[in-house]
Design a protein that fits this description.
Blueprint (H helix, E strand, L loop, with lengths): L3 E6 L3 H11 L5 E7 L2 H8 L6 E5 L7 H11 L4 E6 L4 H9 L4 E4 L5 H11 L4 E2 L1 H13 L6 H5 L3 H11 L4 H8 L3 H15 L4 H10 L4
Parallel strand pairs: 1-2, 1-3, 3-4, 4-5, 5-6
Length: 214
Amino acid sequence: MKECKIILADDHSLLREGLKAVIEKYPEWKVVGEASNGVDLLAMLKKISCDLVVLDIAMPDMDGLAALKEISKHFPHIKVLMLSMLNDFSHFEKARSLGAAGYMSKEDAGEELCRAIQKILSGKMYIAPSVNNLLAERQLHNMDSVNLQSIEVLTKREKQILAMIARGMTNKEVALDLEISIHTVENHRANLSEKLGSKNVASLVQFAIQKGLI
């Protein structure tokens, strides 16, 4: 497993302790600093070398999004995994636009945290399953009433995959993220094309774009 130096930034000490306990189950990973707000975090980053910051959005003095903006500007080599109690699209989009390498709800921050760190260290973006589901529901609700009947015939997994396709993910990326086979993803794509009246994958993606999924 790849070595990683991590700084935790959250205003709740008990949560930081819990995150640290999960992270340090892996000897290659070490928590090298803790901060309770964005101001202290940025000061710490000037003194301590690290590879990853686990950063809460809601913090006093300087919130996580403001801190993320500064990290992306002054410490672009540092990866940032955002933690949030705010399961909404606007915070996710803002975090992604500011350069976050991952986004997850605090409710997922148990063993799922380790999966997130591993994925980020491999150079990929991590989005927690609960957040993915939230995005899928939000995006699908953007479709106009003319197409409500066609949306209702989709299964939960088909809705999830449609949202992932709309964000430009390949079959392989979808398969890895959902831990299913590429063949299964291809079958879901075929079912989506049939149910939504799309003749091929390109038209399926075009349909998603026209309906505001991305």
